[in-house]
Amino acid sequence: MTSTDDPERNLGVAEYLARRAVDAGSSLVAFPEYFSVIPPEGSPLRHAEPLEGPLTRWLRNLATELDTYLLAGSFLEKSPRGRRVRCTSVLVGPTGEILAAYRRLHLFDARPDGREAVFESRTTAAGERPVTVDTPLGRLGLSVSYDLRFPELYRHLALDGAQVLFVPSAFTEYTGRHHWLPLLRARAIENQCWVVAPAQAGRHNLRRVSHGHTAVIDPWGDVVALLESGEGVISAEIDFGKLDGIRASLPCLEHARPDLLGRETRRRERS
Fold first, then answer.
1. Which of 169, 160, 254 is nearest to 215 (CA)?
2. Residue 63: in which H helix or E strand, if any?
3. R_g of the chain, CA atoms, integer Å
4. Residue 213: CB partners within 8 Å, gap ≥ 6?
5. How confident is the model at residue 262 (pLDDT cuts 50, 70, 90)?
């Protein structure tokens, strides 16, 4: 998507694309980060709403009508911590229930292109815990955008049984050009997981441009579906037989050292 500061326009595009995806046979539709609105710099609170707000109701209704799973890549959730928001990703099931909510753990405080610095922590509160969720489509691990640069999060998700890692994003054009696909492939390879990465693409306003390159990557690190630019739909079949075969032939996760992550619990037992 190429979202703007116009929620009505953005949700109209999101619904149109979701219907296209379901008509093509998709069982789960994932939107990018900030799919419902990309606010002007420094004013996210104006567009924030509670978890059980109008956007979630929109998601519930659409998921029920389409009989599909919907992943709201992220939206601006009101935070109990004063005048801050949270970057929240929500998974809704085909009967309209909220199956999981994840608040992005890592905040983007950086000067990515050598120009004006971005201090997301001034307006955004970080999440508190990783999130995995069991569904009939597999065990899913949630993340958002800047999280992609922190491999320990994805190893935690993999050791917790995740088979598919979601990375909805709005990577900047500058950083995305150099790092987006290499990082996605690395997260897939090192955790032997499918990676689904719906991305914002193109110019959102005078100051913000996203890299695009929405991708689905298999557990061997191969890009199996890619949309480089523009608004549209890509789809791929998530083959767990391929995942199981890779993990059996190269059992890296069995050799992982959870204690190096500060994890005192054993890796999740799979049935």
1. 169
2. helix 54-66
3. 18
4. 176, 180, 181, 199, 201, 226, 227, 228, 229
5. confident
- Give the pair of three-digit tokens for residue 248: 């059996």
Question: What per-residue confidence (pLDDT) applies to 115?
Answer: 63
Phi then psi for residue 169, to 5 deg, are -145, 165
Residue with token string 């049935």: 271
Nearest CA among 175, 125, 123 for reference residue 146: 175
In the prediction, which pLDDT does 62 show? 98
> What is the C-alpha to C-alpha distance for residues 247 and 252, in angstroms, rounded to an integer?
7
Give pLDDT tens digits for 37-73: 987 766 667 788 999 999 999 999 999 999 999 999 9
Cα distance between the two ends of the chain: 38
Instruction: Name 77's Cβ contacts closer than 8 Å, sequence gap at least 6.
Output: 48, 49, 50, 51, 85, 86, 87, 88, 103
**HSE-CB for 105 with a 13 A CA cutoff:** 16
Q: What is the rounded CA–CA span in Å between residue 30 and residue 28?
A: 7
Domains of the chain and CATH, by start: 7-258 (3.60.110.10)
Q: Strand, helix or coil at 164?
A: strand
Q: What is the mean pLDDT of residues 148-166?
A: 97
Q: Please report which confidence band the pLDDT of residue 271 belongs to, taking 50, 70 and 90 as the band edges.
A: very low
d(CA 122, CA 106): 13
CA angle 214-217-218, nearest 5°? 160
Tokens of 88: 């929240």
Note whether 121 and 42 are within 8 A (CB): no
